[in-house]
Structure prediction request, 667 residues.
Amino acid sequence: MDKVSSFPKTLVDVPMHYCPGCTHGIIHRLVAEVIEEMEIAFKTVGIASVGCSCFCYDYFNFDVVASAHGRAPATATGVKRVHPECLVFTYQGDGDLAAIGTAEIIHAAVRGEKISVIFVNNGIYGMTGGQMAPTTLPEMKATTSPYGRSTALTGYPIKMTEMLALQDGCVYAERTKISSVATINKTKKAIRKSFELQIAGKGFSVVEILSTCPTNWGMEPLESIKWMEENLETYYPVGLIKDEKEVK
Amino acid sequence: MTTKVLMKGSEAIAEAAILSGCRYFFGYPITPQNEIPEYLAKHLPKVGGTFLQAESEISAIYMVLGGAAAGARVMTSSSSPGISLKQEGISYMAGAETPCVIVNIMRGGPGLGAIQGAQPDYWQATRGGGHGDYRLLVLAPATVQEAVDLTYQAFDLADKYRNPVMILGDGILAQIMEPVELPEANNQLPDKAWAVGKNENRPRNIVSSSYPKVDELEKVSIRLHERYAQIKKNEVRWDSYLTDDAEYVIASYGSAARIAKAAIKMARAEGIKVGLIRPISVWPFPTEPFQNIVPQTKFFLSFEMCTGQMIDDVRLAIGNERPVYHYGRLGGVIPLPEELLAKIKELVKEAK
Amino acid sequence: MGLIKIREERCKGCTLCINACPKKIIALAPYVNSKGYNPATLTDEKACTGCGFCYAFCPDICIEVYR
Ligand SMILES: Cc1ncc(C[n+]2csc(CCOP(=O)(O)OP(=O)(O)O)c2C)c(N)n1
Ligand code: SF4
Ligand code: SF4
Ligand code: SF4
Ligand SMILES: [Mg+2]
Prediction:
């Protein structure tokens, strides 16, 4: 029998620090597999943000620059402007991208910065212990919305990818989810498309991935996937938001 | 032979950066330093460089981090409020051991303050500025020629020590026009094996200031501080004026030192033996010249365009050996040499 | 015809592979690994098709698939 799938060479074989069942690990693997399959590890630079994934530089087996909370798109801009031949992607959580880093991500899209954005939306601040994020759903409980998110007090969840897609510099925006083998494969395809567009010299692209935080949602991994589909997805519908072909 | 050209301080800084091999500039407009980005927007593209106006100073400094991590010579410039916004990023750059040059053309503060030149950011510049236990190498030019020379050197120093270097100027220096001799273009930039980019023939590089294990972070902190000790040993720069027989010593840097010189000339004409020690590197601070001159000196007078910040370093240098006074105007008011002369005379009278 | 090998030391016992397997031939072992997790194990070697669903779903990349 032949080995048909195993540990990607684009990942370092060390244990990951993520909680059991956290979908960050799956998304790491998808990014790594795409880079391995495209044979571009030698010219890939990942930009780590600040969130549970801030230690992704321990796992990705290629160059990584660690940026500050929310600033990965600016750091990616600096790297890409110096090395336009490289594949440069950011890996950002929803607190990172949709709260503190709103200006950086919007303006990277506005400039048509030739970078790829892997946006992992779990509707919560995972790393700091489950505080409310701008993406947290109405009535959803978090440690700083202990009675459920009050829209009267804090407004409504932010739809970042739709906002990014509105910018002329954005060539491709898609929202996917991690809930089944089919959606995992779809997510991988979206990541590949984003990377291919970048290599082809097209503009900014973003893949938002609906993810889970079993720990801070207070659920078993399987239950959290179900909850994500039944709740997060109703507010954040998956699918293509902007396709390359729409870009003139 | 290079010939002299007439240049504005801000434009001279920008041109010196280009000559030093800087090809990337990221910044955000703020008075009184706009001529630096405007000059670079015009001239960087001509040498194959990139000028990019960011959406904020925060974004600009993280673009600088990216460019520096990618191995390029990168610069940003701003003025006081903008420099405040950059502080988190400067701390990240110091922690990630990434070189860059940051120009602060200081203006009156706090808050929005005023756009006129002042020197209220000395503490911020010399004490690190952002969070964490780090230092910036801070150079404070007083003339346009010195602004050129120090900016040119700043990129080498940043690369040598893998640390951000700050050019600390003020609105007066930025606006003044003087003849300058420009240095030769630097075509031999150092190799940076630690930088990210194409990585066919080497192990992966990680540029990060994140060290979650405390013992690791302690080791890194010690390494940084050993480097700062080297900087203290090697990079102290200062100048003096009429100190040989001085009985009273003025401490002053940047544009204020020019006013101090004028006041000293006037005092000397009246027979008052006053001299000037002018720190050029304000971090590392030149403590030795101050210590050495203590025996002949009756008092020190720190002359700064703020309420007195460098005075702390003068006091740290000489201890309680002699009185240390301060004089300065605030908020962007430019002190006249006559005012300083009056202050000198008043203190001399008291000292007798 | 297929086979999987599970690197038990990497496994965090999250059960996502168990749910993903169409043949329902993965279960948590009764023992724990050095991290204190009950690792996943293959319960029926003959039934495995080598479809790779378990690999696709494993957040900790513990599984090697053979076909
Ligand atoms: C300037 C700054 N503010 C706050 C923090 C603290 N902080 C670290 S991670 C984080 C939230 C991360 O949430 P998210 O981006 O959604 O990532 P997740 O952990 O959920 O994957 C916060 C607020 C920080 N590191 N820096
Ligand atoms: S806290 Fe949440 S997002 Fe972070 S690793 Fe744990 S489950 Fe994943
Ligand atoms: S390869 Fe397919 S059949 Fe075999 S254990 Fe994995 S999921 Fe089950
Ligand atoms: S999915 Fe991976 S980590 Fe989770 S139980 Fe299965 S083998 Fe273990
Ligand atoms: Mg999150």
The mean pLDDT of chain A is 97. The first strand of chain A starts at residue 3 and ends at 5. The CA atoms of residues 159 and 236 of chain A lie 7 Å apart. The two ends of chain A are 49 Å apart (CA to CA).
